């Protein structure tokens, strides 16, 4: 299953890396990608969307589903 969430506050490649690492810590995530130009992250797997948003926010970014 593919889930896309909105992530605001990413300004560089390092930010994308931080978001990806945070998302990959959630149970059920097979892979994750972040795109600062689109203000989004795409996750493959069966992780709960609320948990994904929480991981993004714990990393210091604004997330929403």
Write up this protein.
- With 65 residues, this protein is of the alpha+beta class.
- It has one domain: Alpha-Beta Plaits (2-Layer Sandwich), CATH 3.30.70.100.
- Helix content is 34%, strand content 35%.
- The protein is built from 2 helices and 4 strands.
- It has a 4-stranded antiparallel β-sheet with strand order 2-3-1-4, with helices on one face.
- Strand 2 and strand 3 form a beta hairpin.
- The radius of gyration is 10 Å and the shape is globular.
- The chain starts with a strand and ends with a strand.
Layout of strands and helices, then pairs:
Blueprint: E1 2-8, H1 13-24, E2 29-35, E3 40-45, H2 49-58, E4 62-64
Antiparallel strand pairs: 1-3, 1-4, 2-3
Straight-line N-to-C gap: 15 Å
Shape descriptor reads globular
Helix content: 25-40%
Which blocks of ≥5 consecutive residues have pLDDT under 50?
none
What is the CATH class designation?
Alpha Beta
CATH topology, anyone?
A: Alpha-Beta Plaits
What would you say the CATH architecture is?
2-Layer Sandwich
Query: Hey, roughly how much beta strand do the residues contain?
Result: 35-45%
């Amino acid at each position: 299953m593919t889930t896309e969430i909105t992530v605001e506050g990413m300004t560089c490649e390092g930010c994308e890396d931080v978001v990806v690492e945070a998302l990959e810590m959630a149970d059920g995530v097979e892979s994750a990608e972040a795109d600062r130009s689109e203000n989004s992250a795409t996750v493959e797997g069966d992780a709960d969307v609320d948990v994904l948003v929480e991981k993004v926010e714990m990393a210091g970014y604004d997330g929403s589903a």
